[in-house]
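anyone seen this seq b4? input:
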Amino acid sequence: MEKDLILTCDTGTTGCKCTLFNVKGEALFAVRRGYPTQYPHPNWAEQDPDVILEAMLDGIRELLLQVNAQRIACVGLSGTMNGCIPVDGEGRALYPNIIHSDSRTEAQVRRILEVVPFDEFYRLTGNRADTHYTLPKVLWLKEHEPEVYRNARWFMNIKDYLYGSLTGRMGYTDYSDASLTIALDINKRRWAGDLLAELGLDVDRMPAILKGHDVRGKITRDIYRRCGLLPGTPVAIGGGDGACTTRGSGVSEPGSAYCYIGSSAWVAQLLDHPLLDEKARIFNWLDMDGEDYHVCGTVQCGAAAFDWGLRNLLGGQGHSADISIVENMARQIAPGAEGVLFLPTLMGWRTPYWDPNTRGCLMGFSLYHDQRHIARAIYEGIAFALNSCAEVMAECDAPVRSLMLTGGGARSGLWPDMIAAIFGLTTQVHRSPGETTSLGAAIAAGVGVGLFGSYSDAAGMVSARSTHPVNPQWQEAYAKVYGIWSDIYGRIKPLNDRIAGL
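predicted toks r here
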């Protein structure tokens, strides 16, 4: 029987999506299994790795009701980045996964910056020292859970834990997840041993780094008994969700970028070198191949800010408004929303200001304005915030030259045209905007077993469902409004700092 299918498992924040792809990159079947996040204290966010493992295996079992397991050529993996799972030498998780949204580690970040100055740290790792990354979480475990730390053989991300569980090869990661631990030397492409030593951490407890298409791992007999995947089926270690989304978006050359509009939103492109902004407004991580670099600017609240508006400003009695109705409302108002402006900074501002004190802002409204103006302003505010990410890249001599839209927000009938006008750039909408992360994992696995010649070759099978040229009238209107919108942050920062002090 021909092995003509790739099975992927993408472990996101709220659930695991298992998908079957053919060699054309088309998703044939997909199932999703949810799992909870625990919030035991303020600013804490944890998940049980073994609950996620069972969710993945259950999803695989359901998929294999649709096809014969003998058709599975390989398995590809993706997962949330910036986590921290301490694992012992037998492959057992010793503590919940401290996930990306956990920010308990402010004291540990301060300690890191006492050891390595901010600018030097950014140049070394390509990233800011921040509470959401893995390195300060390892320090937190050493200080607050010393027995867990003492018994830990490796500190891992979730997709690496799942890779070890599927193959029996625990203690491995890929270049993309290694980069966003902020414990990797971004230029030398290896663990920053001197940094770890200065912090009193052992570099040998960091997992070995593989290329994302490495397929030396094979499904074990135990996993066969648990889900039906055949023993010996190759498993590619894959990449973090950001890296997989880039590849699944068809990005393959400098200037070719994509914009992901989900709960958070970002603009990213691939370069052959890290883009080290002197103001540290953007961040970098290595691609799964260990050669290219992802350069990214991120909006903390994308669709999350939109959903907040649907629920609290455009709905009724705490219920969300219907998206199609809201989009129709927004279309009735001209670009610029007749002076109503919205900052989607409901959880602080990352690129370009990295200011956790920033709050959301809706301004410029009067008795004349109504919900239609608010709807238009919310769409525009998120698009403006994404444009500010692309502006930083352009300032650093890496302008965005083409843009593929992905994520749930790419299904909008309004955002693609709006982003085209604001960016001054023809945009395209991915043919399957909800499948890009899984498709990236499938590409890595397919490269590993020879179904695709290279990542660049595989990018050629990515296509768009629609193309959106720049509307000159919209572009002219937005050029006037964007300057005002960009000034809001600096003008209200002193007030936001005072509010944060409350």
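The longest strand covers residues 15-22. The chain has a mean pLDDT of 96. kinda curious what u guys think
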